[in-house]
Amino acid sequence: MLYLILKDILLQKKRILYVPIMYNLFGIFFLQEFSSPLLIAGIFIPIIMLQTTVIYEDMNKSEIIINCLPVKKEKIIMARYLTVFLYQVISILAYVVISFLIKISNLSFPVETVTVSEIIICVALLGILASIYLTVYYKFGYIKSRLYYFIFVFAALVLPALILDIFHKTPGAGFSGSVQGLFSGTHNFVLVMLTCLIVAVSFYISVYLYKKREF
């Protein structure tokens, strides 16, 4: 399975670092009024990177090659689900590094400190979006699922703004101020368990649909 994850990483080529850095910079410098840069880093960027992987895989026909090898489809799909969250880790780390550099440079752009509750929310939302998209992808394949992809990109971009509205964001409070005290202790545990359930159900459905597909 490690080699399958490495395959997805290598398919990204230079974009594995370029995309998180550029989109995080764009989010911090230009989207502060619209949404939280941290939510963009934790949700929008991983979805973009997931689609890039799918595109390059289709271009290189690597999916067909892998399905000709003695590799269980469960492992192929599990690797893709894990890779999505690996993209999230890379993106959030890029955000943390960029935020640190902005702080020590004394630039006039506000940056948020990453907290455990915020990471849990990002993981949960990405898990839900990725689960829905991957189920559609393994049902229809890349070509037919392209129309659905734009819906997920739109959701990944707009969702952060909607979440801040739900949390009654106050001017200057940022994402940290909006969720402080809202998700802690039992709430975090319930959110994690719910996300795990959704991802698990999506995984088994994807395996079932993928086994029925013809290549």
Look at the helices and sheets and give the structural class. mainly alpha
Got a strand count? 0
Distance between the termini: 21 Å
Radius of gyration: 18 Å
Global morphology: globular
Integer average pLDDT? 82
Brief account:
This protein is mostly helical and 215 residues long. It has helices at residues 2-12, 15-30, 37-60, 62-67, 73-104, 116-166, 174-179, 186-212. The chain has one domain (2-212).
Overview of the structural elements:
By secondary structure, the chain is mainly alpha-helical. It has one domain (2-212). The chain has helices spanning 2-12, 15-30, 37-60, 62-67, 73-104, 116-166, 174-179, 186-212. It is globular, with a radius of gyration of 18 Å. 33% of the residues are buried. The model has no long low-confidence stretch (mean pLDDT 82).
Topology of helices and strands:
Elements: H1 2-12, H2 15-30, H3 37-60, H4 62-67, H5 73-104, H6 116-166, H7 174-179, H8 186-212
Helix pairs in contact: 1-3, 1-5, 2-3, 2-5, 3-5, 3-6, 5-6, 5-8, 6-8
Task: Name the descriptors.
mainly alpha
